[in-house]
Protein backbone atom coordinates (compact mmCIF):
# COMPACT_ATOMS: atom_id res chain seq x y z
CA UNK A 1 0.00 0.00 0.00
CA UNK A 2 1.17 3.52 -0.73
CA UNK A 3 0.73 6.26 1.84
CA UNK A 4 -0.03 9.64 0.30
CA UNK A 5 -1.09 11.55 3.38
CA UNK A 6 -3.95 11.29 5.81
CA UNK A 7 -7.64 10.81 5.14
CA UNK A 8 -10.36 12.73 6.91
CA UNK A 9 -11.54 10.77 9.93
CA UNK A 10 -14.63 9.40 8.18
CA UNK A 11 -12.57 8.17 5.22
CA UNK A 12 -14.20 10.52 2.75
CA UNK A 13 -12.40 12.53 0.11
CA UNK A 14 -14.05 14.84 -2.35
CA UNK A 15 -17.52 16.35 -2.18
CA UNK A 16 -20.41 16.91 -4.54
CA UNK A 17 -23.50 15.27 -5.97
CA UNK A 18 -21.74 12.86 -8.34
CA UNK A 19 -21.40 9.11 -7.83
CA UNK A 20 -19.79 7.64 -4.74
CA UNK A 21 -16.95 5.21 -5.49
CA UNK A 22 -16.36 2.75 -2.65
CA UNK A 23 -12.90 1.19 -2.84
CA UNK A 24 -12.10 -2.14 -1.16
CA UNK A 25 -8.38 -2.81 -0.57
CA UNK A 26 -6.20 -5.88 -1.03
CA UNK A 27 -5.08 -8.44 1.56
CA UNK A 28 -3.08 -6.71 4.28
CA UNK A 29 -3.91 -3.30 2.81
CA UNK A 30 -6.03 -0.36 3.83
CA UNK A 31 -7.75 2.65 2.36
CA UNK A 32 -4.47 4.56 2.57
CA UNK A 33 -3.44 2.84 -0.67
CA UNK A 34 -6.23 4.65 -2.54
CA UNK A 35 -6.60 8.01 -0.85
CA UNK A 36 -4.75 9.79 -3.67
CA UNK A 37 -7.42 8.69 -6.13
CA UNK A 38 -9.61 11.62 -5.13
CA UNK A 39 -7.13 13.87 -6.96
CA UNK A 40 -7.99 12.10 -10.23
CA UNK A 41 -11.76 11.92 -9.76
CA UNK A 42 -14.09 14.02 -11.92
CA UNK A 43 -15.68 17.03 -10.26
CA UNK A 44 -18.49 16.05 -7.92
CA UNK A 45 -17.32 12.47 -7.36
CA UNK A 46 -16.64 11.10 -3.87
CA UNK A 47 -13.91 8.48 -3.55
CA UNK A 48 -14.46 6.43 -0.39
CA UNK A 49 -11.79 3.86 0.50
CA UNK A 50 -13.07 1.58 3.25
CA UNK A 51 -11.12 -0.46 5.80
CA UNK A 52 -11.79 -3.96 7.07
CA UNK A 53 -11.59 -4.59 10.83
CA UNK A 54 -7.97 -4.74 11.96
CA UNK A 55 -6.80 -2.61 9.02
CA UNK A 56 -5.95 1.07 8.64
CA UNK A 57 -8.36 3.26 10.58
CA UNK A 58 -9.84 0.11 12.19
CA UNK A 59 -6.49 -1.37 13.21
CA UNK A 60 -7.60 -1.77 16.83
CA UNK A 61 -10.54 -4.04 15.97
CA UNK A 62 -10.28 -7.86 15.81
CA UNK A 63 -9.51 -9.30 12.41
CA UNK A 64 -12.30 -11.08 10.54
CA UNK A 65 -11.27 -14.56 9.43
CA UNK A 66 -14.32 -15.50 7.34
CA UNK A 67 -15.28 -14.06 3.97
CA UNK A 68 -19.03 -14.08 4.59
CA UNK A 69 -18.53 -12.36 7.95
CA UNK A 70 -16.36 -9.72 6.29
CA UNK A 71 -19.05 -9.00 3.69
CA UNK A 72 -21.61 -8.77 6.48
CA UNK A 73 -19.38 -6.25 8.26
CA UNK A 74 -19.36 -3.98 5.22
CA UNK A 75 -23.08 -4.47 4.67
CA UNK A 76 -23.74 -3.34 8.23
CA UNK A 77 -21.20 -0.52 8.19
CA UNK A 78 -22.27 0.95 4.85
CA UNK A 79 -25.92 -0.04 4.90
CA UNK A 80 -27.47 3.34 5.59
CA UNK A 81 -25.26 5.02 2.98
CA UNK A 82 -26.01 2.41 0.33
CA UNK A 83 -29.75 2.71 0.93
CA UNK A 84 -29.63 6.49 0.46
CA UNK A 85 -31.01 7.06 -3.03
CA UNK A 86 -29.84 10.64 -3.38
CA UNK A 87 -26.74 9.65 -5.35
CA UNK A 88 -25.65 6.52 -7.25
CA UNK A 89 -22.67 4.54 -6.04
CA UNK A 90 -20.11 2.18 -7.55
CA UNK A 91 -17.72 -0.45 -6.16
CA UNK A 92 -14.07 -1.08 -6.98
CA UNK A 93 -12.12 -3.87 -5.32
CA UNK A 94 -8.48 -4.80 -5.71
CA UNK A 95 -7.34 -8.41 -5.16
CA UNK A 96 -9.07 -9.55 -1.94
CA UNK A 97 -11.16 -6.39 -2.18
CA UNK A 98 -12.53 -7.60 -5.52
CA UNK A 99 -14.01 -10.65 -3.78
CA UNK A 100 -15.54 -8.39 -1.14
CA UNK A 101 -17.01 -5.99 -3.70
CA UNK A 102 -18.46 -8.83 -5.79
CA UNK A 103 -20.02 -10.66 -2.85
CA UNK A 104 -21.35 -7.42 -1.36
CA UNK A 105 -23.04 -6.66 -4.68
CA UNK A 106 -24.61 -10.12 -4.68
CA UNK A 107 -25.87 -9.69 -1.12
CA UNK A 108 -27.45 -6.33 -1.91
CA UNK A 109 -29.26 -7.80 -4.91
CA UNK A 110 -30.38 -10.88 -2.96
CA UNK A 111 -31.86 -8.64 -0.28
CA UNK A 112 -33.70 -6.49 -2.82
CA UNK A 113 -31.65 -3.42 -2.00
CA UNK A 114 -29.97 -0.82 -4.20
CA UNK A 115 -27.00 -2.25 -6.06
CA UNK A 116 -23.99 -0.35 -7.38
CA UNK A 117 -24.38 1.13 -10.84
CA UNK A 118 -21.00 -0.41 -11.69
CA UNK A 119 -18.57 -2.95 -10.28
CA UNK A 120 -14.83 -2.93 -10.93
CA UNK A 121 -12.74 -5.97 -10.01
CA UNK A 122 -8.96 -5.80 -10.10
CA UNK A 123 -6.17 -8.40 -9.97
CA UNK A 124 -8.40 -11.26 -8.84
CA UNK A 125 -9.62 -14.50 -10.37
CA UNK A 126 -13.27 -15.49 -10.17
CA UNK A 127 -14.61 -16.96 -6.91
CA UNK A 128 -16.15 -20.39 -6.89
CA UNK A 129 -17.56 -23.00 -4.50
CA UNK A 130 -14.03 -24.44 -4.29
CA UNK A 131 -12.44 -21.09 -3.51
CA UNK A 132 -11.08 -18.35 -5.79
CA UNK A 133 -8.76 -19.29 -8.62
CA UNK A 134 -6.01 -17.17 -7.10
CA UNK A 135 -2.81 -18.87 -5.89
CA UNK A 136 -2.10 -17.97 -2.27
CA UNK A 137 1.13 -19.83 -1.41
CA UNK A 138 2.32 -16.92 0.74
CA UNK A 139 0.28 -18.06 3.74
CA UNK A 140 2.61 -21.06 4.28
CA UNK A 141 5.91 -19.16 4.13
CA UNK A 142 8.21 -18.48 7.05
CA UNK A 143 8.26 -14.95 8.38
CA UNK A 144 11.42 -13.99 6.49
CA UNK A 145 10.21 -15.64 3.28
CA UNK A 146 6.90 -13.82 3.57
CA UNK A 147 8.72 -10.53 3.95
CA UNK A 148 10.78 -11.15 0.82
CA UNK A 149 7.78 -12.24 -1.21
CA UNK A 150 5.75 -9.21 -0.15
CA UNK A 151 8.63 -6.96 -1.23
CA UNK A 152 8.62 -8.60 -4.67
CA UNK A 153 4.84 -8.48 -4.97
CA UNK A 154 4.69 -4.78 -4.09
CA UNK A 155 1.95 -2.96 -2.28
CA UNK A 156 3.58 -2.98 1.17
CA UNK A 157 5.67 0.06 2.14
CA UNK A 158 9.37 -0.55 2.61
CA UNK A 159 9.19 1.08 6.03
CA UNK A 160 6.84 -1.71 7.13
CA UNK A 161 8.98 -4.49 5.67
CA UNK A 162 12.23 -3.11 7.05
CA UNK A 163 11.08 -2.08 10.53
CA UNK A 164 10.95 -5.05 12.96
CA UNK A 165 8.32 -3.42 15.16
CA UNK A 166 6.02 -2.49 12.29
CA UNK A 167 6.46 -5.89 10.66
CA UNK A 168 5.37 -7.59 13.88
CA UNK A 169 2.17 -5.54 13.73
CA UNK A 170 1.38 -6.05 10.05
CA UNK A 171 2.59 -9.62 9.41
CA UNK A 172 -0.32 -11.21 11.33
CA UNK A 173 -2.76 -9.01 9.39
CA UNK A 174 -1.28 -10.12 6.06
CA UNK A 175 -1.30 -13.78 7.07
CA UNK A 176 -4.89 -13.58 8.31
CA UNK A 177 -6.04 -12.04 5.03
CA UNK A 178 -4.19 -14.61 2.95
CA UNK A 179 -5.84 -17.35 4.99
CA UNK A 180 -9.23 -15.70 4.46
CA UNK A 181 -8.72 -15.55 0.68
CA UNK A 182 -7.44 -19.12 0.51
CA UNK A 183 -10.58 -20.34 2.28
CA UNK A 184 -13.06 -18.04 0.54
CA UNK A 185 -16.13 -19.91 -0.65
CA UNK A 186 -18.78 -18.40 -2.87
CA UNK A 187 -22.29 -19.84 -2.94
CA UNK A 188 -23.58 -20.69 -6.44
CA UNK A 189 -25.00 -17.61 -8.12
CA UNK A 190 -28.72 -17.52 -8.93
CA UNK A 191 -27.81 -16.11 -12.33
CA UNK A 192 -25.37 -13.78 -14.08
CA UNK A 193 -24.72 -10.57 -12.18
CA UNK A 194 -26.92 -7.84 -13.78
CA UNK A 195 -24.61 -5.00 -12.72
CA UNK A 196 -22.12 -3.72 -15.34
CA UNK A 197 -18.70 -5.22 -14.54
CA UNK A 198 -15.24 -4.08 -15.66
CA UNK A 199 -12.11 -6.10 -14.92
CA UNK A 200 -8.61 -4.68 -14.48
CA UNK A 201 -5.17 -6.21 -14.13
CA UNK A 202 -1.47 -6.09 -14.79
CA UNK A 203 0.09 -7.72 -17.84
CA UNK A 204 2.70 -9.44 -15.66
CA UNK A 205 0.62 -10.32 -12.62
CA UNK A 206 1.56 -13.82 -11.50
CA UNK A 207 -1.38 -13.99 -9.09
CA UNK A 208 -4.13 -13.16 -11.60
CA UNK A 209 -3.29 -13.81 -15.24
CA UNK A 210 -5.21 -12.23 -18.12
CA UNK A 211 -6.78 -15.65 -18.76
CA UNK A 212 -8.04 -15.82 -15.18
CA UNK A 213 -9.39 -12.28 -15.37
CA UNK A 214 -11.33 -13.12 -18.54
CA UNK A 215 -13.29 -15.79 -16.62
CA UNK A 216 -15.32 -13.01 -14.98
CA UNK A 217 -17.29 -12.76 -18.24
CA UNK A 218 -19.04 -16.01 -17.34
CA UNK A 219 -20.46 -14.50 -14.14
CA UNK A 220 -21.74 -11.24 -15.61
CA UNK A 221 -24.73 -10.37 -17.75
CA UNK A 222 -23.24 -6.98 -18.62
CA UNK A 223 -19.51 -7.60 -18.93
CA UNK A 224 -17.59 -4.51 -20.08
CA UNK A 225 -14.31 -6.30 -20.73
CA UNK A 226 -10.81 -6.75 -19.31
CA UNK A 227 -8.47 -3.76 -19.16
CA UNK A 228 -4.78 -4.59 -18.84
CA UNK A 229 -2.01 -2.21 -17.81
CA UNK A 230 1.77 -2.65 -17.80
CA UNK A 231 3.00 -4.07 -14.52
CA UNK A 232 2.33 -6.73 -11.93
CA UNK A 233 -0.18 -7.22 -9.12
CA UNK A 234 0.03 -3.54 -8.11
CA UNK A 235 0.12 -2.18 -11.65
CA UNK A 236 -1.37 1.17 -10.55
CA UNK A 237 0.87 1.80 -7.56
CA UNK A 238 3.31 4.24 -9.14
CA UNK A 239 0.73 6.12 -11.19
CA UNK A 240 -2.99 5.43 -10.76
CA UNK A 241 -4.02 7.92 -13.44
CA UNK A 242 -4.20 5.49 -16.42
CA UNK A 243 -6.38 3.12 -14.40
CA UNK A 244 -8.59 5.86 -13.05
CA UNK A 245 -9.13 7.38 -16.50
CA UNK A 246 -10.51 4.07 -17.76
CA UNK A 247 -12.44 3.51 -14.52
CA UNK A 248 -14.11 6.91 -14.72
CA UNK A 249 -15.11 6.30 -18.33
CA UNK A 250 -16.65 2.93 -17.47
CA UNK A 251 -18.64 4.43 -14.60
CA UNK A 252 -19.90 7.21 -16.86
CA UNK A 253 -21.00 4.61 -19.43
CA UNK A 254 -22.87 2.68 -16.74
CA UNK A 255 -24.54 5.85 -15.46
CA UNK A 256 -25.69 6.83 -18.95
CA UNK A 257 -27.10 3.33 -19.57
CA UNK A 258 -28.92 3.51 -16.23
CA UNK A 259 -30.45 6.89 -17.07
CA UNK A 260 -31.60 5.59 -20.47
CA UNK A 261 -33.28 2.60 -18.83
CA UNK A 262 -35.02 4.81 -16.26
CA UNK A 263 -36.18 7.10 -19.05
CA UNK A 264 -37.42 4.13 -21.08
CA UNK A 265 -35.13 4.84 -24.03
From TrEMBL:
One Pfam match, by short name?
A: Thioesterase
Q: Which InterPro entries match?
A: AB_hydrolase_fold (IPR029058), TEII (IPR012223), Thioesterase (IPR001031)
Q: Which segments constitute the Thioesterase domain?
A: 20-237
Q: Tell me its family.
A: Belongs to the thioesterase family.
Which PANTHER family is this protein grouped with?
Answer: S-ACYL FATTY ACID SYNTHASE THIOESTERASE, MEDIUM CHAIN, THIOESTERASE
Q: What is this protein called?
A: Thioesterase II family protein
Give the originating organism.
Streptomyces andamanensis
Amino acid sequence: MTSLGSLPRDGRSGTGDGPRLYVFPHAGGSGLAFQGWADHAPAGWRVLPVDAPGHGSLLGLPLVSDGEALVTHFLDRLGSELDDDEAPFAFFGHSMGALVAYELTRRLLAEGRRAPVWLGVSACGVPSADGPRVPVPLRDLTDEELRRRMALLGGTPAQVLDHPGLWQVFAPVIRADLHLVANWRSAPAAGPLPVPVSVFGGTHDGAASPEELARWAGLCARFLGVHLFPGGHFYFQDDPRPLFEVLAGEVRTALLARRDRVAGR
